[in-house]
């Protein structure tokens, strides 16, 4: 089916066609745009009314329509499709708390992919924010949730040719690698280190050659490690907490990768610098114990500690080069500062080769 490529095309008629894939007989009789939230993708909050069938199914009166409605959207085709496939092809089969999805589809002849999901504001969840670092218990609960879905796909045969997850790529390959290399061009890298985020980290972390070597080391040492499905972008802005404390995840950019890439990324983002220094070891021990509970033969602590420390450089890179059209400079600076401090604490700037 045709997908909307401008916000104005998100209409009652289009939503009727989209929702009918999973809810036959439903008609959206009214659609009002409540908010339009731009970003990497655009989120359109819509207020909906239904025919009798829709009301009988108790479909929500508000939903979020998420897709590529920005000027930069044609360059984000692979990222949009990856998130759409998370909702369509991954979420039904793994144990991850995420927004309920009512439609997920793509146009293979254009850049557009669209997801129609529940509006979490209607359930009064608490959204996490970069400017509010997490406490120990919050991060421990999140790591338990990660260990559960990591364990479900640990070295899974579903990643093999013909498997359900065959399409899930590695973080350092294909479009993800192309995206990375775009920002490692010398003039591009110099631009980002000149921004406030660059002033928030040591000048030693401005060294482009070090950054290239650190990422290459991660990619090289990941070879031969057990892989699992990772959410792929567990910074605080993509996370929420249910009223009962259950961690929730959205805005996934799934890939197959060793566990350490996700755990280092999340701990680096989520904790205040001094708290991370105090808690990263016990939190890593907690994560490994949870893997064991969920049936995985976890690596020993020394190996895990090495892998965790190495992969912190990836989180630093993401926020060193993250564009302000995706996250504000305040957010990018907060995360870059946390990762920058972690890299210095672990002498990572001297261990990239």
UniProtKB/TrEMBL annotation:
InterPro entries: EcKL, Kinase-like_dom_sf. It holds the Pfam family EcKL. Keywords: Plasmid. Gene3D superfamilies: 3.90.1200.10. One of its GO terms (molecular function) is kinase activity. Signal peptide: none annotated. This is Ecdysteroid 22-kinase family protein. The lineage of its organism: Bacteria, Pseudomonadati, Pseudomonadota, Betaproteobacteria, Burkholderiales.
């Amino acid at each position: 089916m045709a997908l909307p490529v401008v916000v104005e095309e998100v209409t009652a008629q289009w939503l009727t066609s989209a929702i009918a894939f999973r809810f036959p007989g439903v008609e959206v009789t009214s659609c009002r745009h409540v908010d339009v939230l731009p970003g990497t993708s655009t989120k359109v909050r819509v207020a909906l009314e239904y025919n009798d069938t829709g009301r009988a199914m108790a479909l929500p009166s508000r939903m979020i329509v998420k897709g590529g409605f920005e000027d930069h959207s044609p360059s984000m085709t692979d990222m949009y499709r990856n998130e759409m496939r998370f909702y369509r092809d991954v979420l039904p089969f793994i144990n991850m708390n995420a927004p309920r999805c009512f439609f997920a589809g793509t146009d293979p002849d254009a850049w557009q992919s669209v997801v129609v999901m529940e509006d979490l504001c209607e359930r009064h969840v608490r959204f996490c924010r970069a400017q509010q670092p997490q406490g120990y218990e919050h991060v421990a609960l999140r790591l338990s949730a990660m260990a559960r879905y990591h364990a479900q796909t640990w070295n899974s045969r579903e990643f093999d040719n013909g498997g359900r997850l065959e399409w899930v790529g590695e973080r350092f390959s294909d479009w993800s690698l192309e995206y990375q290399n775009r920002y490692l061009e010398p003039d591009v890298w110099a631009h980002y280190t000149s921004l406030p985020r660059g002033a928030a980290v040591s000048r030693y972390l401005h060294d482009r050659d070090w950054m290239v070597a650190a990422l290459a080391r991660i990619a090289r040492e990941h070879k031969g490690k057990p892989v699992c499905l990772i959410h792929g972008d567990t910074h605080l802005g993509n996370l929420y907490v249910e009223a009962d404390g259950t961690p929730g995840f959205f805005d996934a950019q799934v890939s197959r990768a060793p566990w350490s890439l996700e755990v280092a990324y999340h701990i680096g983002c989520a904790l205040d610098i001094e708290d991370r220094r105090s808690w990263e070891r016990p939190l890593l021990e907690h994560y490994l114990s949870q893997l064991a509970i969920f049936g995985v033969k976890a690596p020993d602590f020394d190996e895990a500690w090495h892998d965790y420390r190495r992969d912190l450089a990836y989180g630093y890179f993401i926020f060193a080069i993250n564009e302000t059209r995706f996250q504000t400079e305040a957010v990018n600076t907060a995360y870059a500062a946390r990762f920058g401090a972690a890299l210095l604490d672990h002498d990572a700037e001297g261990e990239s080769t």
